[in-house]
Structure formats: structure tokens, C-alpha cells
């Protein structure tokens, strides 16, 4: 079992601590939180060992799980990697692309592995249909959340939209050609609602909307490709696949047939794969353990996290330009 320590014991950090304690692939050694009073309460309530310095925790483990505020990701990753420890970094990988690129360079220099916590890659609904998403040409996503003060220190693009950016980049095998975006600050100093149109070199277009001031929660994506429509509901963990094929000469009584203006006839059929429900956070942590033990690439690499961050900043830059027009 890999010895693991957690940096950061806030809302998400406590979830990671609980799951790592349950995991059969890790031995939870303890945690560090800069708020020692909060850490003492967690230690007393759950029994996790609190370390009084980051250095002591790093020295005691094989893997560091970084669940601190984004502003400290780079500093925590840097000191952990230089100590020869593998790092799991909650999204976004860092505050800037330059920091993310240095994390990648350090991981190679010190021969350690890293994974970024883009948890929607492990959502069972996305997993169920990912292999059927082949060369999508139009993608539409909506990620809406009720207001929560947590995360409002960063734009909604880095808080929420980056989940969908990463998922889209994982299925569109093409470089980003152009980005057009707009955003509005309603309650926060940074944008609370944003819309982005991402154009890829292969012609695919993704239209992404994210909001953290909505009256209800929604996390849905729709993928359109030749002869297929695929929808994913990340919140309800359901998915739907609608496909078309050449219509038979003699359709059955219940066959759904469409005919276009040119006379081409297609049969619509549904292929809804089974969704195997899981704990996505536990899965992302345990697949990272597998990557370390088997010396394979993590499912969400440091490079993946960096590219998602790069596109996120392209969106933020576009919002800034449009704001000044």
C-alpha cells in the first residue's frame, strides 16, 4: 500500500481524507492544514493524524494529495516533487500556465507521477458513453450551480467551466483554433456566469455555459456527431445515445424512420449503455495508485490539467477583451 498524506482539510479535503482512509490501495498517514485549530477539530473528531509542518508530512509518505486553495497548488506541488513524492493535485492544476509547466518539468526531473483532479472524467455517465463519442462536431454543455461563497476567489471559468473544458479536450482530438467568450460579474469580483465558444482545427465547435448564481443545479453535455447524438447528465449520472442508420426497405411497425428532402431515409434507434455507479473521487485517487504501482500514465495527466488551464485562460482573456469593447 502506498503511504499518502493530504494537504488541506477543508470541505473537499475532508472528503479525500475519508475516502483514502477507506481505500485498500493507500495507507492514510495523516494531513496538514494551515489552520491548526480546524485541523485539531478534525483530528479529534475523525482520528486522522495532524502534522504540524508540511515538511514532516511529506517526509512520512509516498504520495501527497494536494487539496489546498488553488493559489497554493504550485508551492505545495513543488516542495512535494522535489522531495521525490508523487502528487495528486485538485483542479485546477495551478494558478498560471507557467506554474503548471514548471510542475510538469519538475515531475520529469525527479521521476515522479502526477495526476490532476478533473473528477468528471470518472463520472459513471461519462465513462459509459465516452467510447461512443467519435469525432464530435458540435458540443453543448451547461454547468449551473447555486451560489456558494466557496470558490468565488477565482472566475467561474476556473471554478466550474474547467470541468467541461477538460472533458471536451479528452474527446476532441484536435487543437484549439479560436475562442470567443463573454462573462458577467454579478455577486463576485470575478465573473459568475460565462459563455464560451471554442473552435477546433478539425471544425468541431463547443459551446460552453457555466454559472454559479443559478436557482438550480445542472451539469449536462450533449455531443453531436455524424449519425449520432449523445447526452450526458453528470449530476443525475444518466446518459442517452441516439443513433441513425440506413432505413430497411421494409420497416417494422415500430421502427422510427426519418426522410430528408432528398429522399434519404434513416432509422433512429436508441442505444443506452448501462451506467455502473461509482464513487468518482475514490476512483480517481485509486487509479492514480494503479498508475504509480504499474508505472503507467495516469488517466488525467499533468499535461491534461495544463492544457485545460491553458484553454481556460484563453476564455478568460477573451472575456476581458469583450468587456472592454
Automatic annotation (TrEMBL):
Query: Which superkingdom?
Result: Bacteria
Q: Where is the Gfo/Idh/MocA-like oxidoreductase C-terminal domain?
A: 150-323
| Pfam families, A to Z | GFO_IDH_MocA, GFO_IDH_MocA_C
Ranges in coiled-coil conformation: none
Q: Which UniProt keywords apply?
A: Oxidoreductase
Q: EC no.?
A: 1.1.1.18
Q: Which GO MF terms does the UniProt record name?
A: inositol 2-dehydrogenase (NAD+) activity; nucleotide binding
Q: Does the keyword Oxidoreductase apply?
A: yes
Question: InterPro entries per the record?
Answer: Gfo/Idh/MocA-like_OxRdtase_C (IPR004104), Gfo/Idh/MocA-like_OxRdtase_N (IPR000683), Gfo/Idh/MocA_Oxidoreductases (IPR051450), NAD(P)-bd_dom_sf (IPR036291)
Outline the extent of the Gfo/Idh/MocA-like oxidoreductase N-terminal domain. 2-118
Q: What is this protein called?
A: Myo-inositol 2-dehydrogenase
Which species is the source of this protein? Flavobacterium sangjuense
Organism lineage reads as: Bacteria, Pseudomonadati, Bacteroidota, Flavobacteriia, Flavobacteriales
Amino acid at each position: 500500500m502506498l503511504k499518502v498524506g493530504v494537504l488541506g482539510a477543508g470541505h473537499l479535503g475532508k472528503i479525500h481524507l475519508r475516502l483514502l482512509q477507506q481505500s485498500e490501495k493507500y495507507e492514510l498517514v495523516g494531513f496538514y492544514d494551515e489552520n491548526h485549530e480546524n485541523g485539531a477539530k478534525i483530528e479529534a473528531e475523525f482520528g486522522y493524524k495532524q502534522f504540524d509542518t508540511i515538511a514532516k508530512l511529506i517526509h512520512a509518505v509516498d504520495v501527497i494529495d494536494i487539496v489546498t486553495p488553488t493559489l497554493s497548488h504550485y508551492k505545495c506541488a513543488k516542495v512535494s516533487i522535489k522531495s521525490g513524492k508523487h502528487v495528486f493535485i485538485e483542479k485546477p492544476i495551478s494558478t498560471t500556465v507557467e506554474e503548471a509547466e514548471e510542475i510538469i518539468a519538475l515531475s520529469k526531473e525527479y521521476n515522479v507521477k502526477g495526476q490532476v483532479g478533473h473528477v468528471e472524467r470518472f463520472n459513471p455517465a461519462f465513462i459509459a458513453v465516452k467510447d461512443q463519442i467519435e469525432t464530435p462536431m458540435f458540443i453543448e454543455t451547461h454547468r449551473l450551480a447555486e451560489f456558494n461563497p466557496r470558490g468565488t476567489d477565482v472566475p467561474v471559468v476556473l471554478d466550474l467551466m474547467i470541468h467541461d473544458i477538460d472533458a471536451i479536450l479528452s474527446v476532441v482530438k484536435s487543437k484549439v483554433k479560436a475562442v470567443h467568450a463573454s462573462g458577467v460579474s454579478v455577486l463576485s469580483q470575478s465573473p459568475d456566469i460565462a459563455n464560451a465558444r471554442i473552435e477546433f482545427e478539425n471544425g468541431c465547435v463547443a459551446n460552453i455555459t457555466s454559472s454559479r448564481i443559478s436557482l438550480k443545479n445542472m451539469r449536462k453535455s450533449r455531443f453531436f456527431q455524424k449519425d449520432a447524438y449523445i447526452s450526458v447528465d453528470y449530476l443525475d449520472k444518466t446518459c442517452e445515445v441516439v443513433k441513425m442508420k440506413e432505413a430497411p426497405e421494409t420497416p417494422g411497425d415500430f421502427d422510427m424512420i426519418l426522410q430528408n428532402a432528398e429522399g434519404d431515409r434513416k432509422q433512429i434507434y436508441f442505444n443506452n449503455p448501462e451506467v455502473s455507479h461509482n464513487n468518482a473521487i475514490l476512483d480517481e485517487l485509486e487509479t492514480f495508485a494503479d498508475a504509480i504501482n504499474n508505472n503507467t500514465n495516469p488517466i488525467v495527466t499533468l499535461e491534461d490539467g495544463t492544457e485545460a488551464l491553458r484553454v481556460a485562460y484563453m476564455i478568460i482573456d477573451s472575456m476581458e477583451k469583450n468587456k472592454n469593447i
